[in-house]
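FW: tagging you since you asked about this chain on Friday. Here's the raw sequence from the shared folder, copied in full. Didn't touch anything.
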Amino acid sequence: DLANFSTFEETAYLLLKGELPDQKQRADFNTLLVHHREIEPQVLHFLRTLPRGIPPMTALRSAVSVSGAYDPLAEDESPAANFQKTIRLTSEMTTIVAAIRRLSVGLEPVSPRADLSHAGNFLYMLNGVAPSSDAEKAMDLILILHAEHGLNASTFAARVIAATLSDMYSSVTGAISALKGPLHGGANTEVLKTLMQVGTVENVIPWVEGVRAKKGKFMGFGHAVYKVEDPRAAHLKELSRRLGIETSNTKWYDISIAMEQAVLASIHKHCNVDFYSASLQHYMGIPGDLFTCIFAASRIVGWCAHVLEQLHDNKIIRPSSNYVGPAERKYLPIARRV
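HL: got it, structure written out here
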């Protein structure tokens, strides 16, 4: 229902407040998000000092940490202050990601616009032009579908940090660090690399057979939770088709369709949310190395919602462990060690 009828702004409000907003609540929430779109000049200066060519997620991880240094509420752990930090982080994350992208290719960052939706403004800051309605819907859908997904690695990392009563920026920086790992947040980037490698629909079957023969991994297929089709994938699939038509280049969608069918027949695993997000974001003009940053700009609201929940009834997270090392032995003086 959220994918079909809602917006990221409404979904974010739902995650933070527990219910969808009424008209006044939605308007007030949007006003807060728009107010926090601008990032501190010091953060932008910091991004300009980074060496060219570093991974975008490295830049994002560091920029969020720097941003916290300039938030006067950073060390205020009251519920009201933590909610304000959540709004600030959710809103400014898109501005930081867009600035990272533009600076990496020698372009000046684009200032946010107050008259665009969260998704529309994100694409505007990335590309410098207002997006088409389908592109805006595609970004909105990506943000909605990635906003929250239970106790995945990055969310769990955020909650562990929050449980020590560290600050919100530390929790989010830790979550970004976990998401940066290719086993968590980098799957759709690998899917795009695969599509580029395959190149044509005709090459799909030989490629699938080759991966099977080498006992390789099909990125974007299977899921730790979903044993049937990932319900998020169908929405991205349809928008990938529509943007392929809009850009007069259905090649990447066609390859994706053929690959989905061939891999399902070969290993009996359905594609997941990462699979069609690759071709969709490619059609939107987003480079593969930025995909995980887009993921972070969506999941930020989920991370913060989990942190707020953790702090509401906090107990430090300290898993127990079973020792399986060598048996206990007495200390041996160094002269007797051989």
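FW: The chain has a mean pLDDT of 94.
HL: agreed, and DSSP finds 16 helices and no strands in the chain.
FW: great, closing this out.
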